[in-house]
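#help-structures
NK: newbie question, is this the right format to request a structure? protein is Transcriptional regulatory protein YpdB
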Amino acid sequence: MANANLTNSGHSSMCVMVVDDEPLLRFHLQRLLQELWENVDQVITVGSGLEAISMAQEINIHAIFMDIKMPGISGIETAKQLRKSGFSGHLVFVTAYDEHAVAAFEHEALDYLLKPIEEKRLHECIKRLQSRSQTTVKYELDSDQLTRLLPRTENVNTLSWINASRGDSIHVIKVSDVFCFIAEDKYTSVITADGEFLIRKTIKQLVDELNPDVFWRIHRSAIVQVSCIECVKKDDQGHYFVVIKDLERVLPVSRNNAQLFKQM
């Protein structure tokens, strides 16, 4: 595996790894890194913490961009195991939490990126990594410091069930079964494989209550579950449209939210 770290000219190559269980998010960050970080030769993507640990033992990784909340072991726990196994590269956490929830990261001087990732913020992060300034980004966190971060990332309450009406009946719907939410007049439609239901919550209220790792607001009147996106299309005018799996409905993406998909 030693040859994996050399370019054709014989010099050491720079390899960066993206760790995220959502394929769409992995691809998005991979494309951004390839475009913004000129010195990077390869951007590897994996879907779990265990894959990241295994890959880091085989290939010399310069920096790892890692999601915090993943099935199996979390990003924090993965980081702890990476450090214990001798990984000395740079770590950047990717999180969907707001400024207040990520205060712990700033306190520990560990860099982080908020989802959805913006090009400007990622470029700033890359410049920090390139400068290797220990006063700006602290990479060598030990296990105790990483453990202190973990409880603060697990206390974010998100909506798991929702009461929705159809006709004269009230249905209790698991949020993970929802394809998308669409605002219509005084109500919001809840779209699932079993059909459409209505709730009185606004899109704005839902944004505050849904897990931003799982649901993206693509328009002022629409929220979609990321894993339910079949593809994203772009028309001749540069407008983006999301196609939902197993549905005939196509949802427009607002100009402000097009950054979610413009690198794809």
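mod (FA): yep, format's fine, and the tokens are attached above. Confidence is low (pLDDT under 50) at residues 1-11, 133-143, 151-155.
NK: thank you!
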